[in-house]
Design brief:
Elements: H1 6-30, H2 37-59, H3 64-90, H4 98-115, H5 121-145, H6 154-178, H7 186-221, H8 231-238, E1 247-253, H9 256-263, H10 265-282, E2 288-293, E3 296-301, H11 308-321, E4 335-341, H12 349-365, E5 371-373, E6 383-385
Parallel strand pairs: 4-5, 5-6
Antiparallel strand pairs: 1-3, 1-4, 2-3
Helix pairs in contact: 1-2, 1-7, 2-3, 3-4, 3-5, 5-6, 6-7, 9-10, 10-11
Length: 387
């Protein structure tokens, strides 16, 4: 099989960039919340232009100097955009300064205009590949680091591909610098780059798809206001894991309707969110905390979480200490809590919910801001013994 010549390789390179740009452009158009994908598509377009200019520079020797400089500037700008796009794709809330994206290309333009270093193929190729390595490696680090915040399965693969591309660029930079193509020749290096861009474009499609699947799952599992688990998730994940000694807490914010009527629904929402965060902060990691609806919440406490009465009293006290500056310093929100425990008599989730609901009713009947365990004789300040 004959080796591919450089014009053929450059044609394949342009084609791959254009195909990648079209794919990413469609993804940008069709996917919501896809910040950074447009930048990545733009980088592919600019890299395709750079590849085209490289061919023109060889075809028209009279214009070699300006075309080769513009080619290098476009190539560096393309990789700067590519690296920045992965930084934004990794975290859509992250901001990237336009000046930092444009800076490498502008520096190359100024240095080239004053030194004409770009007329030397070795200098031009080594500079481009080294800068590409830096940008690809930086993008790989960001993608991998953000996996701790957003652990998508595809992240490590994308980071690995970016790292491999960066390593390939570094190898080519050294080979051009020392005129020693021991690992692969120029055409083979370009072909590897072409393949890597195809894989990168495909991986971003998978990346966005995985992120949207996570958001859809969160929408199905989470309460839209508080971010807590919803009733559906709670029922599906608790009903099959009930064991002797496990407990259920029913919580209700006292006089919530009065609060809504006096300060408005926006204030009511603020209270719901603040109370949710307060309760989350005092619950053990093994607990499952969900919003039942309205001002009602439910907590599953496995046996290892400790005494449910003690946990419930911690919640009650924490809520009572919570302050709401926007509503006034004198506003105190309290909660009533009912407790039920898994026993031979009550082993199903529906039975436990009914018992916890009855205990909650008793806590409210006793004056609110109380904890009631329907099956316990434990009594202390804040607790109510059931009849």
């Amino acid at each position: 099989m004959n080796e591919l010549d450089m014009p053929t390789v450059l044609f394949l390179q342009k084609t791959s960039y254009i195909a990648g740009a079209v794919t990413l452009g469609y993804l940008k158009y069709s996917a919501n919340e896809s910040r950074g994908v447009g930048l990545l598509a733009s980088s592919f377009v600019i890299l395709a232009a750079a590849s085209t200019l490289a061919g023109y520079a060889e075809t028209y020797p009279a214009f070699y100097a300006p075309l080769s400089l513009i080619n290098l500037v476009c190539a560096v700008l393309g990789y700067s955009l590519l690296g920045s796009s992965f930084v934004v794709i990794s975290d859509p809330d992250r901001k990237v300064m336009s000046a930092l994206v444009l800076l490498p290309g502008l520096l190359i333009l100024l240095v080239g205009a004053f030194t004409a270093f770009h007329l030397n193929n070795t200098y031009r190729a080594a500079t481009f590949n080294f800068l590409a390595c830096v940008m690809l490696a930086g993008a790989a680090i960001v993608i991998f680091r953000d996996s701790f915040r957003e652990p998508l399965p595809i992240r490590k693969f994308v980071a690995a591909i970016l790292s491999a591309c960066g390593l390939l660029s570094l190898i080519m930079a050294f080979e051009f610098s020392f005129h020693s193509f021991l690992l692969f020749d120029v055409a083979s290096g370009f072909l590897l780059m072409i393949l890597s861009k195809f894989v990168l474009a495909l991986s971003i499609v998978i990346f966005i798809s995985e992120r949207q699947q996570v958001k859809l799952r969160q929408t199905a599992e989470r309460d839209g206001l508080t971010g807590l688990y919803n009733r559906r998730f709670f029922n599906e994940n608790v009903s099959g894991r009930l064991r002797d000694g496990d407990a259920l807490l029913y919580l209700d914010i006292d006089h919530f309707k009065h609060l809504n009527d006096r300060w408005g629904h926006a204030a009511g929402d603020e209270v719901l969110v603040a109370v949710s965060r307060t309760i989350e902060a005092v619950l053990p990691a093994s607990a499952i905390f969900a919003r039942q609806g309205g001002e009602e919440f439910i907590v599953f406490l496995p046996l290892k979480a400790g005494n449910p009465l003690v946990q419930a009293e911690r919640i009650r006290e924490a809520v009572q200490r919570t302050r709401f500056p926007d509503l006034g310093a004198d506003v105190v929100v309290t909660t009533s809590i009912g407790i039920s425990k898994v026993s031979r008599k009550s082993r199903s989730l529906s039975e436990l919910c009914r018992e916890a609901d009855r205990a909650l009713y008793l806590a409210k009947a006793a004056g609110r801001n109380r904890v009631c365990d329907e099956s316990s004789n434990f009594v202390a300040e804040g607790y109510v013994r059931s009849a």
